[in-house]
Specification:
80% of the residues lie in helices and 0% in strands. The chain contains twelve helices and no strands.
Length: 316
């Protein structure tokens, strides 16, 4: 009975092992499909609708054609191609923000599951009231930070290549600079990017406060957090590719069979494959990240006692 009392929901209320996290992630997705898979599919489909609609319109107005045998030289054709793939890029940018919202929703679902409660999509969305714009701001800020970091590295590449006349210097920079950039990116991702969304949704903090909470929680647990995060990313990437590649190939096949619809086929194939991939990748990755947040708080702050109290275990 003691074991049952300490597991009122999807996870045991104690520090979690890797197996506990993955088992709980699948349980949470299985028993809360609307608020996990449903949320991911909904936001992905809405954001991917933009490039599909734009490309469809351009295909039947400007005649967007991607074919080696035809030169795209006319103003309308050039604008059509630029518009089609520009809308795809815009859709992907919106997708990043939308998936940030999914991360927030899933963190609420994870906490409810830990307490033995199930949330529908409507309930999870209602629970985000008052924090939606902060979540959008957090998503934009952390992604902008990673983008600026990458841009600084690329800029340094140009500076080294333009200034240095020595091949040895360029080779040394390519070797050590790339390693340093990768190490810095992993550090930023783990300490500042990975856990702020759950902190923002589950605590009374703002955007910068959530980033600070993620930084403090991973202190002393960097390598474990990074290892689980990388393994989860690998699993999600492989599963996402298995699900999405066949759809993407089908879109390319449309272009080969009907060149006049090549751009539409490519964009439509990419959009559908993104939706299919996100249906698994987004909720699984978000659930594991939220479970790592819960695990770190139980290890460092006795969060298991708070969860037991919320679940009514201590009163019983």
């Amino acid at each position: 009975m003691l074991g049952a009392a300490h597991k009122p929901g999807a996870i045991p209320l104690r520090p979690l092992a890797l197996g506990d996290m993955y088992d709980a992630a699948f349980r949470i997705i299985r028993f809360n499909p609307q608020a996990t898979v449903g949320a991911a599919v909904l936001v992905t489909a809405l954001t991917m609708a933009l490039p599909v609609l734009v490309t469809t319109l351009l295909t039947f107005t400007t005649g967007v054609v991607i074919d080696e045998s035809q030169d795209v030289t006319g103003t309308e054709e050039v604008l059509g191609v630029v518009g089609a793939f520009g809308s795809m890029l815009g859709g992907l940018v919106l997708l990043v923000v939308a998936l940030g919202m999914v991360n927030g929703l899933v963190s609420l679902v994870v906490r409810a599951a830990a307490e033995g409660r199930r949330l529908s999509l409507g309930q999870a969305w209602a629970a985000t009231l008052g924090k939606r714009w902060r979540l959008v701001g957090l998503t934009v800020l952390v992604n902008l930070g990673m983008l600026l970091y990458t841009g600084a590295y690329v800029t340094l590449w140009f500076v080294v290549v333009l200034v240095s006349d020595s091949v040895v210097v360029i080779v040394l920079w390519a070797s050590f600079g790339t390693v340093a950039f990768g190490a810095g990116a992993l550090w930023l991702w783990t300490r500042l990017y990975y856990l702020p969304a759950p902190a923002l949704m589950l605590e009374d903090v703002g955007v910068l406060g959530a980033i600070g909470r993620g930084y403090r929680l991973t202190s002393g647990h960097f390598w474990r957090t990074l290892g689980i995060a990388l393994l989860t990313l690998l699993i999600a990437s492989i599963a996402g590719s298995v699900l999405s590649v066949p759809v993407g190939l089908l879109g390319q096949g449309v272009g080969l069979a009907w060149p006049e619809y090549a751009a539409l086929g490519l964009v439509l194939g990419q959009a559908v494959s993104t939706v299919v991939s996100a249906a698994f990748v987004a909720p699984f990755s978000a659930a594991v990240a939220s479970l790592q947040y819960v695990d770190l708080r139980m290890r460092k702050e006795g969060y298991d006692v708070e969860l037991m109290s919320r679940a009514g275990v201590l009163e019983s």
